Amino acid sequence: MAKHDTYDAIVAGAGHNGLTTACYLAKAGLKTLVVEKNDWIGGAAVSRSLIDGWTYSNCSYVCSLLRREIVRDLELPRFGLQVIPYEGGATFTPEGDYFAYMSDHDALRRELARHSPRDADAYDRFSQAVIRQCRFIRPFLLRNAPDPTSLRPRDLSELLFLVKQAHGLGAKELGETLRFWTMSIGDFLDSYFESDLVKAHIAGAGIIGTGLGVYSPGTAYVLLHHYMGDVDGAIGAWGFARGGMGAISNALGAAFEEAGGEIIKGAGVDQFLVRNGKVTGVALENGDEYHAPIVASNMDVKRTFLQHTDRAALPSAFTKAVERFKIRGSSAKLNIALDRLPSFPAAPKGATFLRGDMHCSTTLNELERAYDDWKDGRWSQDPYFDMLIPSQIDPTMAPPGKHMMTVFVQYAPYDLEVDGVRSGENWNDATRKAMADCVLDKIAVACPDIRERVVHAEVRTPWDIEREVGLTEGNIFQGELTFDQLLFNRPVPGYAQYDTPIRGMYIVGSSAHPGGGVMAAPGANAAREILRNIGKGKSMPDFAA
Amino acid sequence: MTDNRFDAVVIGAGHNGLTAAATLAQQGKSVCVLERADRIGGMSRSADLGGATLPEMAHLLYNLNPGVAKSLGLKIASRALPTVALCPAQQHVVIQGKTAQYANGDAHPDAAAYAALYQRLKTFAALLGQLAEGAPPALAGGMLNAKTLQEMMALGKLGLGLKRLGKVEMREFLRVILSNAYDLILDELSDGPLAGALAADAVRGAYAGPRSPGTVFSLMYRLGNGGDVTLPIGGMGAVAAAFADAATKQGVQIRTDVDIASLVIANDRVQGVLLSDGTTIHADAVLSSAGAMQTMQIAGIAHFDVEATRRMRHLRNKGTTAKVNLVLRNLPAFTGLTREQTAGRLLVAPSAVAVERAFNPAKYGGISKSPLIEAVIPTLTDTTLAPDGTHILSAIVSYVPHGLEGGWTDAARADLLDRVVQTLEAYAPGIGELITHSQVLSPADIETMTGAPGGHWHHAEMGIDQILTVRPANLMARYAFGVGGLYLCGASAHPGGDVMGAAGRNAAMQVIKDGVLR
After folding, report:
1. I want to staple B12 with a disulfide (CB 3.0 to 4.6 A). Which of A251, A329, B17, B176 is the partner?
2. What is the distance between the alpha carbons of residues B88 and B100, in angstroms, rounded to a whole number?
3. Mind listing the pLDDT tens digit for each residue in A233-274?
4. CB A501 within 8 A of CB A315
5. Contact call for residues A517 and A225 (beta carbons, < 8 A)
6. DSSP states of B417-430 as a string?
7. Which of residues 149-208 of B touch A (CB under 8 A)?
């Protein structure tokens, strides 16, 4: 017999943003339900054990963007969240050399000078420029994006805030900011550095997760999504969530349940229920129906409206805008259980940078060519990857003496081309293996013994990620981070403040401002918006203040 | 004649240099234009090949600033041309303004969507076009004083214009303005020659594929003055001559074959120009239509601060367009086109995907096997250009890198010619047999001949990070260029390239406004 029940609010999807929204709604006293299609919570911030003794962060894998205001406010450490920073990183060359990034400034300067004395000097100018951009953007993350076409006092005041912030920069910095936001990461780096290796090491952060190349304008901005975070206040630092990225979702879930919330797992939303332009609840795939005057969707905007909402309930202009919202699958993932630490013959023994992010792409052109492959529906034949071995720092990830390696691969298409046909269906065990072989061959540049170390490997293509997690095309940002899809354009112009054409229904995932990464900002911003609309705006702290 | 004292000296007799000179002369200033080449015109000039007068580099007009044309009294006869998007399956599309139909007269399934898109882009472009009418808007300091407030007026006007479009269109403008042409086009049209024609127009002259963000802006830039493509009667040389006439009528002196050794600078102020033959020409202002870096080098890098030098060194100006000029003993027969249609602007850009693909090899110093071509046979419109019966085919070839791997040798030029002819053969079988004379100009050749940095037709890439208030570079955007009295007046200054004349006019007005001239 199908269940029916009534709540004050329902959140569809237990990703980190959905859980964040749910926490705030529950803490404001709303009887809140979270429904999740998988048998576990977390969405793409998840830890899973696919082989005994090993834990994989099998989607997102490192943590930095998670807003510390939210971590503190929801007391996530009390629910088990511990973020352990890691230091440094390296790019290995086929010639047996490497460029190592180190957080010790003097060590980094020596390392840069080893590759180019001029780049050692340029680095300080570079990092100042990036930090200035981070400082500029951080205050906007936990605020609404103003609607520039609106004359509502709130929008005007947000616009004024933007103008004031911009004005405060002065003419020179404003010009630099304008350029930075519209430049490619390749051009930006070319204007500072001469060493290909140094440039390639940094450039990856501008393209991870995007359908853009290192020379596509707008990728310098994407770099910020990897520099504007912090670990315990150390800006730009990255860390591992102890126990994997699922620790974040689990802490949020526990906080939510402590606040009186309820989570139903293993039952996805079939349909958002709408009557007379108002949302009334959700119908689940298993036939259960739950009712609430407020429904928040943590699914991306395409999935929410094109798959689970009656089109008749939506204005056609809105549906068209959702259809043209670009969510392009471009990343794959290898999660590997290792029988012991692989060898890195190029690196000094015990080098700290081996505990950071490692790469084997040595020129910007190599990265750009990897993008060209993707445009034509192939996985990059010479792929870029971001590879880490978190078990060196977090022993809970693998049995004693053994290790876990996470390899994020850019680029892999969602609709793979085989014999002239582009389709996600072309991803099968054979194509998955061929792609993994291609990646492992390149990892062998850094660790020649990698193949002997592999105990188990999980290969996740954009197609797989979509099917398991529910992210359209497996896109990690729930939508491209290009200007036509940022700020007041995200996800749809006119609906950039978490609201939708259906009264009571909200978008709370990364499809909304400020976009992707395990940030929790869209979830918190959306909660503030929901609470304000029901006259409970004061029950949530004003992070913007 | 031996008088070598002027109020202002203009470097370069391209259309911008000549416009700057004429504009200053109209204000009662004495002006001398110095041109390195033996002919005026820069990129808009004619050349003789096998008895025919052909447009050596630029071959069509579409962006001439009407304000400039009016104030200089330019007399340029020109004929509007339709665009013919060639299709490998012979289903060519004829585009005229907002209408698109198949060459055989059949309706195009995307005609309505195209018309709506074109109209919208044209409306947006007209709004942006206002920004070309003066120095780039100041972004900061708007609330501080009356002067900066006035400088923000241009932006204010744009904002007002946007508001007037209504909410829906304003939102659309703000969504697409920094976006990429590929998505914009394919959101509305199915991919094919019509989409390809738009995509190719968005990137012609640019070092960018249609998937690069910022290409919607470059498409709008093209449409800023209406977008109608016209063929100048009498050849491109007649265009340059019209600019020169306007200048000389105002008393401007134009000297060709002049080699400048350096600028004369004292106390951080320009005093004049020193020629290689030892002559000094004295002037209170020097306006340079040469590239930004070249101008810096002529002035002497020591006169600029480190940051300015660094910015100039990193200007993006990789030229990507080559020119192939052919003299044909007979009119080539384009399959499926009437004579009238053959006289149009012929585009080889079969789809937006093909345009993006053609860009790929150029990034690594190669040339696509299927190059993008904009060809025109001017002799069909203007019979005076070639001896009876013979014809000219002028082709702009996109995505030909300045830094070709292996360098620009004669063999490389021959290879490019071959690729272009092979590509055209698919649409006009037998065209190769008709060629009596040919000329191939690589971006490197164009740089050598005109001084345009990188052979780039805008002198500096028109990316969003190099336009308006940051063109050519941040803090150097208001024409004044480091040294007192030195100004940029060419395509590397706001608003940028094309045969437009706005940069020259704006620079001259800035010189007057700054009170540099007594």
Report:
1. B17
2. 18
3. 788 889 999 999 999 999 999 999 999 999 999 999 999 999
4. yes
5. yes
6. HHHHHHHHHTTSTT
7. 163, 167-168, 170-172, 174-176, 178-180, 183, 187, 208
| A283 band by pLDDT with thresholds 50, 70 and 90 | very high
Closest CA to B88 of B224, B240, B229, B196: B196
The whole-number pLDDT of residue B1 equals 42
Lowest mean pLDDT among A210-219, B138-147, B505-514: B138-147
Domain A4-45+65-82+243-325+480-539, architecture per CATH: 3-Layer(bba) Sandwich (3.50)
Most B CBs within 10 A among A151, A152, A155, A182, hence the mutation to make, goes to A182
Min Cα distance A375 → chain B (Å) is: 9
CA–CA distance, A356 with A389 (Å, rounded to integer): 8
- With beta carbons under 8 A apart, name residues in chain A contacting B364: 365, 369
Per-residue DSSP letter, A390: G
3-class DSSP string for A450-512: HHHHEEEEEEECHHHHHHHHCCHHHCCCCCCCCHHHCHHHCCCCCCCCCECCCECEEECCCCC
- Per-residue H/E/C for B73-90: CCCCCEEECCEEECCCCC
Buried b (16+ CB within 10 A) or exposed e, B216-238: bbbbbbbbbbebebbbbbbbbbb
A168: closest chain B residue by CA: B140
Q: What is the mean pLDDT of residues B76-92?
A: 97
In the prediction, which pLDDT does A436 show?
A: 98
**Predicted local confidence at residue B386, as pLDDT:** 96
Furthest C-alpha separation in chain A: 73
Measured between CB atoms, does B138 come within 8 Å of chain A? yes
Q: Hey, what amino acid is at A118? A: R
Structural domains of chain B ordered from first start: 5-43+66-72+237-316+451-514 (3.50.50.60)
> How distant, in Å, are the alpha carbons of A209, A243, A518, A534 from that of A45?
15, 11, 7, 30
Q: With an 8 Å Cβ cutoff, are B183 and A488 in contact?
A: no
Q: How many CB atoms lie within 10 A of CB B397?
A: 27
When pLDDT is averaged across residues A378-387 and rounded to a whole number, the result is: 98
Nearest CA in chain B to A190: B314
Q: Are A91 and A358 in contact (CB under 8 A)?
A: yes
Q: Which of B93, B60, B61 is nearest to B349 (CA)?
A: B93
Q: Check pLDDT > 60 for residue B144.
A: no
Rounded to whole angstroms, the Cα distance separating A121 from B463 reads 28
Checking if the pLDDT of B456 tops 80, the result is yes
CA distance B106 to A132: 57
Task: Give the CB-side neighbour count of residue A452, counting CA atoms within 13 A.
Answer: 7
Choose the closest CB to B183 out of A182, A326, A488: A326
Cβ pair B214:A182 closer than 8 A: yes
Integer angstrom CA distances of residue A303 from A49, A271, A425, A472, B77 = 27, 11, 19, 7, 56
Query: Which residues in chain B (402-421) have CB-CB distances under 8 A to chain A?
Result: none
Report CA-CA distances (Å) from B91 to B94, B194, B349: 10, 10, 13
Q: Count Cβ neighbours within 10 Å for each residue of A157-195 and write b for 16 or more, e otherwise.
A: ebbebbeeebbebebebbbbbbbbbbbbbbbbbbbbbeb
| DSSP code at position A69 | H
Domain ranges in chain A are 4-45+65-82+243-325+480-539
pLDDT of residue B273: 98
Which tokens go with A353? Answer: 């940078």
Mean pLDDT in residue range B482-492:
97
User: Which pLDDT score, from 0 to 100, does residue B147 have?
Assistant: 62
Query: Are B179 and A483 an interchain contact pair (Cβ–Cβ within 8 Å)?
Result: yes
Q: Sort A236 into a burial class: Cβ within 10 Å, 0-12 / 13-18 / 19+.
A: middle
* pLDDT one-digit tens code per residue, B107-119: 999 999 999 999 9
CB within 8 Å: B475 and A167? no
